[in-house]
Amino acid sequence: MTRPPLFKRSVRCMAVALAVLLLTVTAAWADLLQDIKDKGEITIGTEAAFPPFEFVENGKIVGYSADLLELIMKDLPGVKLNRLDVPWQGILPGLAAGKFDYIVTSVTATKERYDRYALSLPIADATVALLVRKDSDIKTAGDAAGKVVASQTGSAQLKALLGLGEKLAAEGKSFKDVREYVSFDEAYADLAAGRLDAVAQAFPNLADAVKKRPDAFRIITPPFGPAVYFSWAARKDAESKSLADFFDAGLRKLNESGKMKELQMKWFGFEMPVPADALPVPVQ
């Protein structure tokens, strides 16, 4: 029996409407945390070359962040942790490209990253300072004028160092040279060898460098630039919100229970009070 044209159009319209409805419902239900629970596996991106936050020891990623992550993962029973160790330059692009579900490495909370990613509650202070040789004539950050300075390529610490250079330029001064390194360990080696005069890095990391080589290095205090924090990061989309909220809840619990400070004493030798309610909006 031949159906009338109006009936055919009605059927096609209903099919299209149903398809749109299914797509809408699927999008509304997209939930990365639930997907991870269903799959039984989470993929975490890490740059394990940032002691004492995260580094490799005896073939295993260890450090302050590793301990925090291990405690939080107890609230995801049955989920296997797949932690990928990649260079810093690939961390945030890898998250944006969907290579990781989440980032557990020390991401300095800058305004640009705050706008683009779902940064977690603070895990530590990240205010930048200078590391110099113990016999250096540099006494303040301003004394770095005329010196060879360095930091890590693409890092917020390099950006802060360049900001210090702009401040010096306003006073008619400048660095002799600004060098970029793939890893801070390479910069520390060149500093010790006399090929550099100062390295800009977050204060907690410098404290660890001095702790390991008290005969070679010292820190210039006070740190320069505004107060900033280290965070972890998720993608800033509706699907990832449940996972970002999960890690924030875990960090808040560890902060308020005092466990976070206990781990800071273990890995840094001092406490770094950080907000437990929200990440302060970065000023730069």
UniProtKB/TrEMBL annotation:
Keywords linked to the UniProt accession: Signal
Keyword Signal assigned:
yes
- Record-linked Pfam families: SBP_bac_3
* Domain spans labelled Solute-binding protein family 3/N-terminal: 41-271
According to the record, the signal peptide region is: 1-30
Q: Which PANTHER family match?
A: GLUTAMINE-BINDING PERIPLASMIC PROTEIN (PTHR35936:SF38), MEMBRANE-BOUND LYTIC MUREIN TRANSGLYCOSYLASE F (PTHR35936)
Output this protein's name.
ABC transporter substrate-binding protein
State the species of origin.
Answer: Pseudodesulfovibrio indicus
